[in-house]
Amino acid sequence: MNRSTKGFTLLELVIVLAFASLLVVLFFLQKANVDAMNRDDDRKTAINAMYYALEEGFHTQNGYYPESISEKNLTIIDPNLFTDPSGIVLGEEGCAYHYEPANCEDGKCAEYTLRAILEKEEDYIKKNRS
Predict the structure, then answer these.
(1) Burial class of residue 44, CB neighbours in 10 A (0-12, 13-18, 19+)
(2) Pick from 61, 107, 80, 102: which is nearest to 53 by CA?
(3) Contact (CB, 8 A) for 100 and 117
(4) What radius of gyration do the chain's Cα atoms show?
(5) If exposure means fewest CB atoms within 10 Å of the residue's CB, which of 28, 84, 97, 122 is most exposed?
(6) How far is the C-alpha of 105 from the C-alpha of 94, rounded, in Å?
């Protein structure tokens, strides 16, 4: 008896489908990791911009650091950098960015800490130079 069949057996199709499903799952897991790393890079970029605006702009001109930062007193950077990748603005609850002034008197501070809460790494922290 000559059984000539064209096509694939059910077992072959199941194996190929399982393998393809595994590849799709791995792709989306890796994509999620890459997306999170990109958001972390965006957060670091924003903190660095705020840091240099504070040091090279605000502190150089005024001799102190402000009690709070926003686009109003750090005008030399892109205002969009005050909004984290989740869409929350610096100073609002849940924002990944934090400005923590220290040793303040009459609105003039001697120190500060800038912090970004990252997804894939420890918090990214920048402190004043002086």
Answers:
(1) middle
(2) 61
(3) no
(4) 25
(5) 122
(6) 27
Question: What's the predicted TM-score (pTM) here?
Answer: 0.81
Q: Where are the alpha helices (DSSP H) in 1-130?
A: 10-52, 60-62
Tell me which amino acid residue 66 is. P
Q: Could you read off the pLDDT of 84-108 as tens digits, one per residue?
A: 999 999 999 999 999 999 999 999 9
Cα distance between residue 97 and residue 90, in whole Å: 6
- Could you report the per-residue pLDDT of 8-39, keeping only the tens digit for each? 898 988 999 999 999 999 998 899 999 999 99
For residues 45 and 122, the answer to whether their CB atoms sit within 8 Å is no
Burial 106-119 (b: 16+ CB within 10 A, else e): eeebeebebbbbbe
Every domain of the chain and the residues it spans: 11-127
Q: Which of 110, 125, 114, 130 is nearest to 66 (CA)?
A: 110
Residue whose tokens read 């040091």: 55
**Tokens coding 56:** 């090279």
Mean pLDDT rounded to a whole number for the chain: 92
